[in-house]
Amino acid sequence: MSRDTLSDLLRSVRVRGAVFYYVSCRNPWSTEAPPAGEIAEAVLPGCEHVMEYHMIAKGNGWAATSGHAPVKLATGDIVMFPQGDRHVLSSAPGIEPLRQTADWVFSTRNDPKPMPISYHHGVVEAGAQLPVDDADMVAVCGFLGCDLRPFNPLVAALPRVLHLPAARAGAWVSHVIEQAVAESNNPRPGADAVLERLAEMMFVDAARRYLEDLPEDATGWLAGLRDRFVGKALELMHEQPEHAWTVDELAHAVGLSRSALHERFLQYVGHPPMQYLANWRIQLGARMLRESNRTVATIALDVGYDSEAAFSRAFKRLVGQSPAAWRKAQVSH
């Protein structure tokens, strides 16, 4: 498994974090969050994909989303919803939730964050919090955003519910939650930036831990990283995207036949090796267009295309816009 490949992708798709709510609850309580796609523009403007997370600082609870059994939460746990599903947090399964609507999220988008919210006995108080000693559960809740285009195989490889129990976490995670609580309760200059970085670190750790816990028969991009042959091929393409790779050369480098590598890539990644390489080159090119002033022709050569025209055709095929139009749109955001 190549951890560098995961880091490479995470840098490229621009993971952004935000802490929005400091939630304190007294039993019985239940709250429903709307689908992240409905509130994305309010919580992380400009992000193509938004995920919600909850860090449990005190007490216990349950997390549930349609089609999945409820997940029991305890102090120090983190639960994420990588596909942005509507979900419920509650003191026990089956309690009718108070619904947090998209309209409410938009109406409070400019209020100071993290916003304290208290839930107790069917009542919700925005802008208020229960004293910690009186609360049965305290959570720090927020959002993570990332790009989907041109190419992001990580999001599809993550589950709908990602539960990270405190018992299997590193000691640093409890410190992250403690720091998030401290910054939420006593904002100081730079608090927003600290909370953003904590959220981003938490997401990277979550992806790593999910990768480590995948069953042996798992498939998907993350499982491919762990596979001896696919992981090595991915590492080579990420290390040298500009190289004129062929399936034969990659297969020889990882110790498989051409056909075996092709089949293994389809099994794990869902794309043949050369299609994956083409998509990754466009993703790299998009990042360069967004973050540098290099010309399209220079970027084309940097990511392995023989000419600006060839790169532009491939870019438009995957993104739906020319490189110049895409760059202009990114600047306007």
How would you sum up this structure in a few lines?
The chain has 333 residues and is α+β, with helices and mostly antiparallel strands. It has helices spanning 3-12, 36-43, 102-107, 153-157, 171-185, 191-213, 221-226, 228-239, 247-254, 258-268, 273-291, 296-302, 308-319, 323-332, and strands at 16-26, 30-33, 49-58, 61-64, 71-73, 78-81, 87-90, 98-99, 115-120, 123-126, 137-146, 162-164.
Molecular structure report:
The mean pLDDT is 87. Helix 5 packs antiparallel against helix 6 and helix 11 (273-291) packs across helix 13. The longest helix is centred in the middle third of the chain and has 23 residues, at 191-213. It contains 14 helices and 12 strands. The radius of gyration is 22 Å and the shape is globular. It folds into 2 domains: 3-213, no CATH class; 227-332, Homeodomain-like (Arc Repressor Mutant, subunit A). 46% of the residues lie in helices and 20% in strands. A 7-stranded mixed beta sheet has the order 10-9-1-11-3-6-12. Strands 5-4-7-2-8 form a 5-stranded mixed beta sheet, with no helix packed on it. Strand 4 and strand 5 form a beta hairpin. It has helices at 3-12, 36-43, 102-107, 153-157, 171-185, 191-213, 221-226, 228-239, 247-254, 258-268, 273-291, 296-302, 308-319, 323-332, and strands at 16-26, 30-33, 49-58, 61-64, 71-73, 78-81, 87-90, 98-99, 115-120, 123-126, 137-146, 162-164. The protein is α+β, with helices and mostly antiparallel strands.
